[in-house]
Protein: Cytochrome P450 oxidoreductase
Organism: Cladophialophora psammophila CBS 110553
Amino acid sequence: MALSTPLTQQAVSPLYLTAAVLVAVLLFLFVQSKRARLGHIPGPWLAKYTNLWRGYQAWRLNHHNEGVNNYQINMIGRYGDVVRIGPKHVLVYDPEAIDTIYGFRERLDKAKWQAHLFTGTDQTALVSIQDEKTHGIYRRPIAHAYSLSSLKGYEPYIDETIEKLIKELDKHDADGTPINMTRWLQYWAFDVMSKISFGEPLGFLDHGYDFNGMIQAQRENFRYISVANNFPLLDTLTKRNPLLKWFTKKPSMFFTFARRVVSERLAKASKDPEAQSQSRRHEDLLGSFIAARKAYPLMTDLRITHLTATNVLAGANNSARAMDATIHWLTEHPEAQERLNNEIRSVNMATMKEVDTEGPAALELALKMPYLDAVIQESYRQFGAPANNLERVAGRSGLTLPNGTHLPPGTVIAMNAASMAMLPHIFGKDARVFNPERWMQQKGESEDEFHERRLRMQRSMLVFGHGSRSCIGKNIVQLELYKIWATLLRIYKVS
């Protein structure tokens, strides 16, 4: 009998070990939740202890057609404007808090893990930098390239790419081939951003399909980010796991392309040093970045490559999403197409001779079209907003929201641009419907009332972020969208 005792102890010891680990994990989650001092913030029970809840919700959003962040919108009615969505994470739905969280007064830092999520090891990318001071240092050398005064220099590139798109569409139309406008506009979005950034297109319009798999890879990457944004442990176990680097694929064709173009241009600049100082006469974004090297030593070759490549990936994706939403809506509303076509033609005919209206629309004309502006604003609101939470960390004194709620130091505070764009008390009871009329003056509405209502909607939109961290490329995206729609909807009808 005595011989059986060690065997029994040996058999049950793994159970004790498992139980001990489980108790330790539960104790850790409990202590972590209590230390956050967020017991006064309502939210789902599971979210108090783990990020699994919000990670699952983000995964469900990616795999089910439930609309934009449906679960977040439903939480507003249940928990209010301030909701606890993680052990130390709080989501805010109050537009009055936008300046408090993202404005220049508090200057809250970004969450540490978020820096790695979007750019991997490149911690000098603007989206990666945590603190405001460092962000300003790295933004300064490239700010001029994205300014309103620089837009005119990019317009010829956009015109050239629009003409290429029209040529391809006409060729397929003449062949009787059905045209998938959504797909072709996606190809155009990537080619035009590459043209503005590198001075040459990626070649999607020439090939007529996703020839290098880049578009699909980007789609999958953004899906991954939307989940990892809510469940950081996923990123730690996958992309940031050093063991998995052994299985990493070779660099994509796009990054091979980026390195080649940048290397060639840098070599050319080294032979002509004078060209580096002519920042106001740059041909494209890459030219501007190279010209900035003389005044800003931090503009290294690697940084220039990362900046230019990121510009294409982020800018093309945002434009493509907004155009996709617009196309789907226009096919369902032919009367809106007719209205846009008439507005575009009337503005063109009122300002220039008919013979001059055949090419790509000039930006100054596109900006004079109020209904076109309303359609573009609505496309931003509905599908241009990222589904990721825009996170900031409360400083040493914590943060008090406009409604009086105090959040302790270290609390991760976020707003979600997609959900904010669906608030019914800001955008109307039909907030979840694509309706450009909300951006137009209503019958019986005075000028002052209209401007106040529209300003309230614009202030609640976080499509391009807010404050010093707002998207640096938003002017370029807007330039593209106004010009492409003012041109295509004058020539074609989609169905």
About this structure: The longest strand covers residues 82-86. The chain has a mean pLDDT of 85. The two ends are 85 Å apart (CA to CA). The longest helix spans residues 4-35.
